[in-house]
Amino acid sequence: MKLIAGVDIGNSTTEVCIGEINDNGAVHFLSDSMTSTTGAKGTEENVKGIIKALELAMEKLSMQVSQLDVIRLNEASPVIGDTAMETITQTVITESAMIGHNPDTPGGQGIGCGETLRAENEEQAKEHKKYILIVPRTIGYEEAARRINQLFKKGVKVAGVIAQADEGVLICNRLQKPIPIVDEVQYIDKVPQGMQGVIEVAKTGETIRSLSNPYDIASLLKLTPEETKYAVPVAKSLMGNRSAVVIKTPGGDVKERIIPAGTLTIIGEKKTETIGVDSGAENIMSLAEECFPIRDVEGESGTNMGGMISTVKDVMAKLTYQSISDIKIKDILAVDTMLPVKVDGGLAGEAYMEKAVAMAAMVKTHRLPMHRIAEKVEKQTGVFVQIAGVEAVMASLGALTTPGAALPIAMLDLGGGSSDGAVMDQTGKISSIHLAGAGELVTMLINAELGLENKATAELIKKYPAARVENLFQITIENGETRFFDSPLDSRFYGRVVVLCPDGMVPVLKDISVEKIVHVRRSAKERVFVENTLRALKMVAPMNSIRNIPNVVLVGGSSEDFEIPELIMNELSKFKVVCGRGNIRSSKGPRNAVATGLVMSYSGR
Amino acid sequence: MEYRRPAILIYEGPGEYPGLSEIKSGIEEEGVPFKAIRYSKKASLQELSLMAARQSSMEAGIGICDEGACFCSITGGQVLFLLREAADDRKALRALGSNAGRFVKKKSLR
After folding, report:
1. Helix A455-463 and helix A439-449: axis angle, to 10°?
2. Which site among A471, A485, A487, A498 would you substitute to test the B interface, given the most B Cβ atoms closer than 10 Å to its Cβ?
């Protein structure tokens, strides 16, 4: 009878499985545990976490670690992943041609055309002429209204107002005649004077109709057909707004610039190609496929992607005591995305969604210096430590303990830094692959597309469902269910969307609807995990056909996610493949596959 | 049949409160109707705001007196005192009015 411990050191968690193996080689599983990995995977810092996990597992059996016969460590896959993003478009408003920030409470409604005039220069106003008055914060709403009414009396046609303070409604309510007012214009001093402008404010609940139409802008500002072409990006940027201002400045317009985002050089076994990041994810991934198998990838220095690629190679070099030139990128996953960026030249702090490319890259080397870890563990525990087989093999063995699974089996290990796939056939022969792009890339996409600028919130949105706070005593969860509270919620939750974390509700501090959050969350998971599922299975499947794999078992931290397995299942059902979240040893769900496999494979020797 | 016009009610204590105009501006900018009523009997700030909320068909009331200003809402029979500011902080009082308006419109508070 031997008491064996299997230890799996992952990027985020260290898992242990304890089993008893009799002389016939039959395994009887006794206990398991899980703890956070201490330090980077593959370094001596991991020993602390390993010992803790072993102690936790043995405690459950009221035994000491020293009573173990063998400790088997996984040959941790020498893979490190990282992510980066490059923006590839940028909206620039030149010469203050437009104001499109869509304030909450504009004043009045309708369209007003006129020459822009600063309120301080009102004596310059001519009778019977139309103006758009520019009102800085220093002139309060009562004074502003008084001056405008005076101008009306003099026969001056004030057709609209651009105001700096949040007082659009206050000013309009005090005018003899209501006129459209766009307020909250931060950089009021930059609004050019003496130029033709148009202001439009739609009724509550509606959006503008004229300033989002290039032909209407042309009629209102009397543009030539040539000039009307330039009105197109203006109209496009203003679509969906409740209010807007367009000013005809001599050189002014709105441009969507393509930002030079650097290049990627993909060095494949058969060919090497270079591509501009701004050609988008689809083109990058097509090229990567053409160059497969990838020997290395280089990014342009000075770009985010170039920086990320050098960093990830550097980290691996230090980890494995090799020189950086020996470290190669083996896989990339590029994803098209959008993120809100402050408009250059904006008068009111406008931010528009710009195109970007997000990328995950993965470095691989021969082996991590596991023997250093093994020696240290042996020293501290007094137990014989073995470095056992390849992670993918161990994971597949563990996955086989899922009821209903049989050989040939495919396993997808979905983690934080990489997505790994393996296929084990009837003879026990295994084919495996490591791919870039996993949980961390999903978090980055959620963070960018919702404009959160907060990785922690993005991580929570990824993992847990969202709800809308209807009032301080009730919330409506994304699935439609209503939950009530006995005591009032904190007022900072009022009117907001919250994430339902196990420890409590966390408010999302941006004005985003539950529907948008759900949509972005699911789309990010699809673009990363469904894409990588298809890529991995095609690479490891017999004759590269997914239909040749009857069973796919999902394991790893990201397989515990409440949506990811479902999204993958939906996709794979098209191939008539049985796919689902694993249930290791009928009780552990997708966790503990490798640790379990390590114990099982001892008896196989 | 006559209905009570929906409005945030503001109960003013016996003194003079220049900050009241800031509260009114804040609510007005949000486009929410309001009405200010003088309450000359002695009452604490909380009592003032609670009475205002009880009389308001929106069940939203603001009290202002020497103690300061306070916003009270009654939701599902429960009384909540949500915002409280000093009587002389004009910017904060404008924000209190604005947030009271946003609250009845079910928008998040700034």
Report:
1. 110
2. A471
Query: Under 8 Å CB-to-CB from A404, ≥6 apart: which residues?
Result: none
CA distances from A233 to A98, A225, A256, A414 (A): 11, 15, 8, 42
Smallest Cα distance from A547 to chain B, Å: 51
Per-residue pLDDT, averaged over A211-237, amounts to 91
**Those residues with Cβ within 8 angstroms of residue A327's Cβ, 6 or more apart along the chain or in another chain:** A313, A316, A317, A320, A363, A365
> In this complex, which of A170, A470, A494 lies closest to B28 when CB atoms are compared?
A170
CA distance A51 to A391: 20
**Contact call for A491 and B109, based on CB within 8 A:** yes
The arithmetic mean of pLDDT across residues A77-99, rounded, is 84
The span from the CA of B16 to the CA of B37, in Å, is 13
Q: What's the whole-number mean pLDDT along residues A347-352?
A: 88
**Nearest CB partner across the interface for B80, out of A168, A204, A472:** A472
CB A171 within 8 A of CB A163: yes
Question: 498-517 in A: which are within 8 Å (CB) of B?
Answer: 511
**pLDDT higher than 80, residue B62:** yes
pLDDT digit string (tens) for A533-578? 999 999 999 888 888 887 899 998 899 999 999 999 999 999 888 8
Q: Is A105 on the interface with B (CB under 8 A)?
A: yes
Taking the C-alpha atoms of residue A113 and residue A106, their distance in angstroms, rounded to an integer, is 17
How far is it, in rounded angstroms, from Cα A509 to Cα A176?
Answer: 39
pLDDT grade, residue A412 (50/70/90)?
A: very high
Which string of DSSP letters, residue by residue, matches B56-108?
-TTSEEEEEETTEEEEEEEETTEEEEEEEE-TT-HHHHHHHHHHHHHHHTTPP
Q: Are the beta carbons of B29 and A491 separated by less than 8 Å?
A: no
Distance of residue B14 Cα from the nearest chain A Cα, in angstroms: 26
**Gyration radius of chain B over CA positions:** 12
Partners of B82 on chain A (C-beta within 8 Å) are 491
In our burial notation (b when 16+ CB lie closer than 10 A, e otherwise), range A160-199 reads: bbbbbbbbbbbbbbbbeeebbbbbbbeebeebbeebbbbb
Mean predicted confidence (pLDDT) in A290-318: 89
Q: pLDDT averaged over chain A?
A: 92
